[in-house]
Specification:
Length: about 375
């Protein structure tokens, strides 16, 4: 019995390392399965990112079981044409969502309502022509929004009301002719705005937005070129360089049409929703002191930048004139003192010259008497 049990014990001792190695492999596999358990088969996932780009997807895969703590979801370069309203449900940890380079043409209202921590949203290069004003409700932490290369013809009033933390916005490459200033006034932290490659019509409908752009640039923001396509005499020019005096006729049109050109109903200019505006019915605001700040700021006669430039130039000219006047006054004083000194010297010499003439006359008289 001893001979038969010894080999068995030996075999068990030799088998311990193998079993430990097998347990290690199983634990690693269990960890990997735990990480990938919620990852859709069309995507590649890690602890922070789910990459579903370039998979020719025609619908969004099931995302409800993504790895917990996923911060980035990439769905770019697919064939998505529509999205369900529940497509991004239960993804409150998501911070970056990329839907660029798809075929999206219509997005449901409040599609992103549960993405409360989203900070970067890209809808670049889709087929969007209309945006629901409730689309971005709840995205209070959004910092970057890319809507470029779509077919947008307008930005609805109220679309950006809750995006007060937005710092970067692109509307380049759309079909925008004009924009309402009131749509963008909630963007108090905006620093970068892209508006190029749009068929801008530089008429009264764009006047108020031009004023807002100048205010954005004045407080340190950046706006790319806004080239006019109409009217013909402004074609190819950047509206930021068009003198504000060219829009003076808009005021005349408003007076003739009762405030219909380039203004809101009732003739009162649009303001941010938190600001009280005068109503067309009831009391009418007459004095400038009673107007809301947004109204006074919107209808400044000249742009802020040009006003500052005028003040600087006027200050320089006045300084030069003052220096010239001081120099002229100093020269006049010096010249007057020199002339006074010269006159005093001349008066001192006159008596001496008189004595010499008297002596000469006496000598002449003596000579004539002797003769």
């Amino acid at each position: 019995m001893q001979l038969s049990t010894a080999p068995t014990v030996g075999r068990r001792r030799r088998g311990n390392p193998d079993s430990q190695g097998l347990l290690g492999v199983l634990s690693v596999c269990a960890t990997l399965l735990q990480l990938c358990a919620g990852c859709p088969s069309e995507c590649v996932c890690n602890s922070l990112e789910a990459n579903c780009s370039g998979r020719s997807l025609v619908s969004v895969p099931a995302l409800t079981s993504l790895p917990e703590g996923t911060h980035t979801l990439l769905l770019a370069n697919n064939r998505l044409s529509s999205l369900l309203i529940s497509a991004f449900a239960n993804l409150s940890t998501l911070e970056t969502l990329d839907l660029s380079n798809n075929y999206l043409d219509n997005l449901p209202s409040r599609l992103f309502r549960e993405l409360s921590n989203l900070s970067d949203l890209s809808l670049r290069n889709n087929s969007l022509t209309v945006l629901d004003r409730e689309l971005f409700r709840g995205l209070t932490h959004l910092r970057r929004l890319d809507l470029s290369l779509n077919g947008l013809a307008a930005v609805p009033l109220g679309l950006l009301d809750e995006l007060q933390g937005l710092t970067w916005l692109s509307l380049a490459g759309n079909r925008l002719h004009a924009l309402e200033r009131a749509t963008f006034e909630p963007l108090t932290n905006l620093q970068h705005l892209e508006l190029g490659m749009n068929p801008w019509e530089c008429d009264c409908n764009l006047r108020d937005f031009k004023h807002w752009m100048e205010w954005l640039i004045y407080r340190g923001g950046n706006v790319d070129a806004v080239e006019c396509t109409l009217p013909k005499d402004l074609r190819g020019r950047d509206i930021r360089g068009v003198p504000v005096e060219m829009f003076n006729y808009c005021l005349q049109l408003e007076d003739e049409n009762g405030g219909g050109a380039g203004s809101t109903k009732g003739g009162s200019p649009p303001c941010f929703r938190g600001t009280a505006t005068p109503s067309s019915e009831g009391a009418v605001v007459r004095t400038e002191a009673e107007l809301p700040d947004c109204v006074k700021q919107r209808y400044r006669p000249v742009s802020v930048r040009r006003a500052i430039g005028t003040v600087v130039i006027a200050g320089v000219v006045c300084g030069i004139v003052c220096i010239m006047m001081v120099a002229a006054a100093a020269y006049g004083c010096i010249y007057a003192s020199l002339m006074a000194k010269y006159q005093r010297e001349l008066k001192k010499r006159q008596p001496l010259m008189g004595d010499a003439e008297a002596e000469a006359d006496a000598e002449e008289k003596q000579i004539s008497s002797v003769a």
